[in-house]
Amino acid sequence: MVGVMSSNVEDVLVIGGGAAGLNAALVLSRARRRVLVVDSGRPRNAPAHQVHGFVSRDGTPPSELLAIGREEVERYGGRVVAGDVRAVRRDDDGFEVELADGVVRARRVIVATGLRDELPDVPGLRERWGRDVLHCPYCHAWEVRDQPFGVLGWQPGAVHQALLARQWSADLAFFAEDLGDEDRAKLVTRGVRIVDGEVSGLVVENDELRGVRLADGTIEALSALFVPARFVPNDTVLSELGCELGDDGWVRVDPSGLTSVPGVWAVGNVVDPRAQVVNAAAGGAKAAAAVNWDLIEADMLEVAR
Q1: Residue 224's beta-bridge partner residues?
Q2: Is 250 found in the same domain as 112?
Q3: Are residues 52 and 128 in the same domain?
Q4: Out of the domains of life, which is the source (predicted)?
């Protein structure tokens, strides 16, 4: 990574150096745009051992994938720097971006700041997140296939996840404190074992998950626990810029990632909680093409004046 300060205005500032941000920067750098990526260095998938479902990169450690991405961006002249964005202010000529060690200017901004996973208050859960306490069956269930595992039914969407996760194991338990008749019938039909009661802790031996402990002291043996996290977007920059929200409370974007604020795009998990790495990367590429064309139109308009 290189230093921030530059005497020229960046064509595009990308906030966030994950798959979405780096792929946007890659496409824009290849389009001969001046691109600066500011990366906080706190990727959401850091606890995971590998990335899956990304053709040609399946099984790649997340840190390795991002390192490759940074090298590719820099190969085409883009710059990637470590840091946090403190504020983004819009003016007549574009955007002024305040960093910890200075201020940079950019004509357009792509926000790819991701989201954070909120987990239930079960002791030990966070420490094993991404190891044997997991979120996405498509991302992780193959690695624990045919083993006994469970799904923690702590919020809406957990039943759906259990119905899905049953695809990978015949020995699947659903832990629920309160379960409606309709959902209970679905789980029974799918062959999911229902365990009523509160999960109070994990059973870990030799740094491996062995089961969960219920509030009544019962221990249910399992090798992995799927927990549908509550998604919270890291959208402070977008909200401060005045980007409109949809009915779901997330920032609204068009198919290219353009927000309601001209010149500001948002891609990846900050606007799409279900985007896996491959989806986020694709979103970054789509936004990059839209941003590049927007700049072309702006340049032509300036020449015509």
Answers
A1: 149
A2: yes
A3: no
A4: Bacteria
Q: Give residue for tokens 């030799």.
A: 206
| CB 137, CB 168: distance < 8 Å | yes
Token digits of residue 27: 């496409």
Within 8 A by CB and 6+ apart from 259, the residues are: 238, 241, 243, 244, 251, 252, 253, 265, 266
| Domains of the chain: total | 2
Residue 298 CA: distances (Å) to CA of 111, 170, 265, 291, 305: 20, 58, 16, 11, 11
> Is 115 strand, coil or helix?
strand
Distance from C-alpha of 262 to C-alpha of 274, rounded to nearest angstrom: 25
Looking at the structure, tell me whether residues 235 and 111 fall in a common domain.
yes
SS3 78: coil
Q: Of 226, 253, 270, at which residue does a domain stop?
A: 226
Digitized pLDDT (tens) for each residue of the chain, 305 residues in all: 444 544 479 999 999 999 999 999 999 999 999 999 999 988 888 888 889 989 889 989 999 999 999 999 999 999 999 999 999 999 878 999 999 889 999 999 999 999 999 999 999 999 999 999 999 999 999 999 999 999 999 988 899 999 999 999 999 999 998 899 999 999 999 999 999 999 999 999 999 999 999 999 999 999 999 999 999 999 999 999 999 999 999 999 999 999 999 999 999 999 999 999 999 999 999 999 999 999 999 999 989 87
Q: What share of the chain is helix, strand, coil (3-state, %, to 5)?
A: 30, 30, 40
User: Within its chain, how far is the Cα of 124 from the centroid?
Assistant: 22
What domain range includes position 191?
A: 120-226
